[in-house]
Design brief:
There is one protein chain. The protein is of the alpha+beta class. It contains three helices and seven strands; from the N terminus they run ααββαβββββ. A hairpin with a 2-residue loop joins β4 and β5.
Length: 126
């Protein structure tokens, strides 16, 4: 992930990032984000934006307060090239159909952490 010839193949950072979406304990969620995301995290989707890990963690806490009990899951393999990845995700109550699904495109920093994440949701969902 330090050069454009490197393609990320380890999904640990991505899966840890997804786990942070589901962690309701503030300290544990922040720890998951620190493991998976760079300090200069920049996040954008149609409904949320955050600059920095602490700001992003606060946004996740807000989402969780609006959708208690819902779980975010990665629903695809990770497609990767250079220092970029994309993957599908969905949000649902356990055992039920997703209420929203989308795709994230992310860029790794030179330490192997996600530092630019852009989320897309289907038209008409927001």
């Amino acid at each position: 992930m330090t050069t454009t010839e490197t393609t990320p193949t380890d999904t640990t950072a991505i899966d840890t990032y997804i786990a942070a979406w589901n962690e309701t304990d503030d300290a544990k969620r922040l720890e998951l984000l620190e493991q998976s995301c760079g300090a200069d995290l920049w996040y954008r989707d149609p409904m949320l934006d955050a600059d920095g890990i602490e700001a992003f963690s606060a946004k996740l806490a807000f989402v969780q307060s609006q959708f208690p009990g819902y779980v975010t899951s990665r629903t695809s393999d990770v497609d990767a090239h250079h220092d970029l990845v994309r993957f599908n995700w969905a949000v649902a109550l356990p055992g039920e159909a997703p209420v929203i699904a989308g795709v994230d495109v992310a860029k790794f920093d030179d330490t192997g952490k996600l530092h630019r994440i852009i989320g897309f949701t289907p038209e008409g969902v927001v």
